[in-house]
Specification:
Layout lengths: L5 H8 L5 E11 L4 E10 L3 E5 L9 E6 L4 E11 L2 E6 L6 E2 L3
Antiparallel strand pairs: 1-2, 1-4, 2-3, 3-6, 4-5, 5-6, 5-7
Length: 100
């Protein structure tokens, strides 16, 4: 039986392919009362993989601010392993644009 890699398993459970990226992001908790910087490693229309400098638990729901896009996406914590977290965007909610 062929061995399945972690990457192949992640791709199988995901509905849409994510593009590799290195974007600056911020997790905004409780309406922006707490802000945690992160790096967005993978991204598509339905979710993202985030990497943090340290390990800490995230709430189930929060907003993800994508700095370059100047947009805030409502998100949920899908999984968390060490300094990485997979997030799923809410399909019924649209991102909020931040004016310049």
């Amino acid at each position: 039986m062929p061995k399945i890699t972690r990457r192949e398993m992640e791709q199988e459970s995901r509905a849409e392919h994510r593009s590799r990226t290195l974007k600056r992001g911020q997790v905004r908790i409780d309406g922006g009362k707490s802000i945690i910087d992160c790096t967005i490693r993978d991204l598509n229309e339905t979710g993202a993989r985030l990497r943090f400098e340290s390990i800490f638990p995230l709430p189930e729901r929060f907003d993800l601010f994508i700095v370059d896009a100047k947009a805030i996406w409502p998100a949920r914590n899908a999984w968390q392993k060490g300094p990485e977290t997979g997030v799923e965007f809410f399909p019924t909610e649209i991102p909020t644009s931040i004016p310049e």
